[in-house]
Please model this.
Amino acid sequence: MKQRAPRALTALVLLWSVLVGLPAAALNPGLGQVPQDLDRLSPRATTQGFLDAVHRGDYPRAAHYLYLDFLPAAEQATKGPQLARRLKFVLDRELAVDMSVLSKTPEADAANSRFDSLGAIPLKGASVPIRLQRVTVEGVPTWVFAEATVKMVDPLFDEYGPLLTETLPSFFFDRTVMGLELWQWLGLLVTLLGAWILSLLLERLLLATAMRVAHWTNIAWDDELVGAGRGPLRLPFFAGLLALGTSFLLLPPKLKLLSERVSYSLVIIAVAWFILRFLRVSEAFVQGRVTPEAGSRPRARALRTQLAVLRAVFEVATYVIAAALLLMQFEVVRNVGVSLLASAGIAGLVIGLAAQKSISTLLAGIQLSITQPVSIGDQVLVEGEFGTVEEITLTYVVLRIWDQRRMVIPITQFLDKPFQNWSKGAPEMMGTVILQVDYMADIDALRAELDRILANEGRDLWDGRVKTLVVFDVMDKTLTVRALVSAANSDKLGDLRFLVREQMVLFLRARPQWLPTVRSESRPAVA
Model:
């Protein structure tokens, strides 16, 4: 009984030391000298310091943030870094530490100034609390991971730690490069190569199966659509396999977040990529099916214009939405978005005024595709230049002029100002040839020559509808003669006018008395 009394008294003293945070000896004496820049004055400083150390691979430093006095001093230098490394993997995988809820003062929570909790991790039907404990070292309050938490690190690591710990050589676990151990770098390389190879195989397998199904139909659209999936379909497979592979590597939170964002971004890019290809394949298919059935060139050109503009609209929308989804992953962009929404009235007014011209141009492009004042392939006369509409976008129209020059015209030009569309309506057209002849010219002979020209040299150009020759104007010294002819389209009309003018000039040259002459006359003097 006398021997038990001193032991009971010693136990009470030790228990009282723990309760009041005054240990009988220095903390973790087996770890050696404590680094001078080690900050353990508050729960937040201890947690942040521990996570920074383990993610740099400095496990000996991280061991100073653990309560190891329950271990023999001779084992602390070896066991401490090992426990710190294992606790890192457990926290990275199962517990997202929120620094904002941890106290920045040594007193922590006034209700319980000796402990602070980071959370709890489930283990075999129970819950293991992850807590910090305040002790006093040389009169200074010091926060470390609690003894009960450190004792549970090994069971937690056996449940949530890396699967290859016991099979790979220790060399892969002893060194850290840029915050990752060598086995993690090896696993990351294998994951990237394996995910890329498997994604290629899965893409080919799925496309081959889809192509066989597409061959069962009589239309070519589904075959082209399956072909359009080559490339975009590979990225979702790669993203999924990458996310699955990296989940076993127990990456640090920052790298884990980076991996998740890369996978998410690849899926968005793949969807946008496929939508763009889908639009182009669908446009080509509709043009190929509807154009032969349209029966008229104007209708075919109008349809081609509508499809081109609509595809441009959907492509712009796809780019904008994809870019927004990609940028919304970042906190800075989300904060900017919230700020903009909070001041939506002012922001909308400013943006509307700044982008008024751009928005009106885009709306003009959409209006042009609906109202169809001009279509791809139309022959138009704009600003004194005659040419063929070659391309229509949401902001401008490309005009191919007769001498092969390209004239780029703002799309608002066709809505705000008048222009001539020679292809609008029926393609048949009429044109004039103006000649200056003398008063003595035989108009009937000129009409007969016009008939001869149209019946012989111009028979392939004249459509047989209109042919007239009249005295258009009477001037003081000449007559103005106008020949009116018709052709099936503007191209033939231009050539026909050139031909009639040339032949009529040759006809007049053979009769010089009908050419304009300058006369002078005198009158007798009045007496």
The chain has a mean pLDDT of 77.
